[in-house]
Amino acid sequence: MAMARSENNPDRLAERLERAESRNQAKAADLLGQLQLAPADQGPSGLGIMGGTFDPVHYGHLVAANTACWEYNLVGVVFVPSGRPPHKRGKVITEQEHRYRMALLATCDNSQFFVSRLEMDRPGYSYAIDTVKNFAAVLGPRQPLYFITGADAVIEILAWKNINEFFTYCSFIAVTRPGFDLGGITVEPQLNPIYLDNIECLEIPALAISSTDIRQRIAQGRPVRYLLPDAVHDYIANSQVYAPAGTAASEAGFEY
Ligand code: NAP
User: Fold this and answer.
1) In whole angstroms, how large is the CA radius of gyration of the chain?
2) CATH classification of 10-30+45-149+171-178+200-245, choosing from 3.40.1190.20, 2.70.70.10, 3.40.50.620, 1.10.287.70?
3) pTM of the entire structure?
4) Of 92, 114, 167, 197, which cross-links 27 as Cys (Cβ 3.0–4.6 Å)?
5) Centroid of ligand 1 to alpha carbon of 150 (angstroms)
6) Relative to the CA of 130, which ligand 1 atom is closest?
7) 161-183, pLDDT tens digit by residue?
8) What are the tens digits of pLDDT across the range 85-105?
9) CA 244, 250, 253, 256 torsion: positive or negative?
């Protein structure tokens, strides 16, 4: 794998991960505490729930989360790596601990971002409804919740578990790649029309970067530096998490 100038010292990477984990816990406690105390009508309010597989997390995700945070004046954004995405049964996805650690490293230096193990630690499939209900229970009804994810997901949103109930808890921010056309999507028949107003679109030019492309580049030995944070780049190089099939390290994926 052609990965340039990487931090290849396992001890230093372990230290970096330990620091990122401890900082993540502090940020989570701080942001959730602010949300529990703050009246929703003054200053920033609400939490963005960034749902995704993050396989791996990249700058497109970070720009999307930051833009949503700014546009909706949110207190913060929690990244929730999927544990067992229901729509990916039978597919091989990267072991969740790798995806979680990469998200930790990517968000470490932003005091408004933290990462949650919620979907990873919850048994069974990772349904978004269970995730938003959890944050609604923690924060109470005064704080608005925004589920942020790729616009491609809107196409299939009717297949999501308890989708009408989902919209009673949160709004949906569909982040799109440049040129993505949502025009052909018809959600009206099954989705209660009162919830259509709860779907917002946000075009994020940086989402020209994609996790699929990054994995393909690595498999082909092409560079991925500057598509994702250096710390994530180093983690990938060190753990060989996306090593080409057939090598020992390719066991990082799992099927469920
Ligand atoms: P995916 O199928 O892996 O990704 C679909 C597209 O959306 C890809 O182009 C992906 O780009 C992009 N994307 C995914 N998450 C994104 C994010 N947070 N920000 C920007 N772009 C994003 O989708 P997924 O990651 O598995 O699912 C997305 C979210 O929807 C997850 O939280 C999942 O749990 C939820 N979901 C829930 C249900 C349900 O409750 N029944 C069903 C389906 C999905 P990249 O590959 O570059 O990320």
Assistant:
1) 18
2) 3.40.50.620
3) 0.92
4) 114
5) 5
6) 40
7) 998 899 999 999 999 987 776 66
8) 888 888 888 999 999 999 999
9) positive
